[in-house]
Amino acid sequence: MTGVEDVEIVVTHHERVTVRVGEMFLKIDGDQARIDAEVEAMVSAPIPTPKILWRKPSVLALAALPGTALGRLGEPSSASPAAWAAAGAALRMLHDAPLPSRPGRTRDQLAAELDAECEWLVMNDVLPADIVARNRQIAEVALRPWTPVFTHGDLQLAHVFVAGDAITGVIDWSEAARGDAMYDLATLTLGHPEHLRDVVSGYGTCVDLEVIRAWWSLRSLRGVRWLIDHGFDPTSPGCEVDVLKAQARRDQP
Question: How many CB atoms lie within 10 A of CB 78?
């Protein structure tokens, strides 16, 4: 049968599904408000984003980006230090842009989520209590006052596409909102601390490394249950559970 393109499932979970058909991505999401917020963010962002091909209720069609992802959580990145620095520079452009209309989570909301997730992790024997306690202590550093900026909100390294040393685009803007700049930097470098200084060199000034490390703990603590509930494995090598264990060991003699 000719003229028929394969359908590749890129990601699927209870909230939404993304599939690739040729050079087009289809994002299927039952939350129309989330699609609307994603479109608004892509249109407003001062950095490269996928071209919007068309929109229909619950479906957003996007053109594929050239290049390859910066990397994957749990796998070594083959991208150059210059590419990581370019990602940092792109983030700085985003954070310097006018604020989006969508509010992000408040410190009180994050603190409540942190309490609930730490309790769940210990009660369900997902992680040893001492590892949870140490990471909670580290995570609380992130819950300081911050000046809101335009954040991507889920800037995993798999969402940043590069060709050589240049950024070709950033995908998956469904969590874009006002937030803490250090959270985006932490998400980008989660599980890849060896590239943190490359990213910071591209980003420039006003970077607090301890706050970034605190967000590594906070994001991982908040993410484990969500990943399990949506069919992902946070215990895979190099992923969230390994990040939490490494964070707990970092300051030990």
Answer: 9
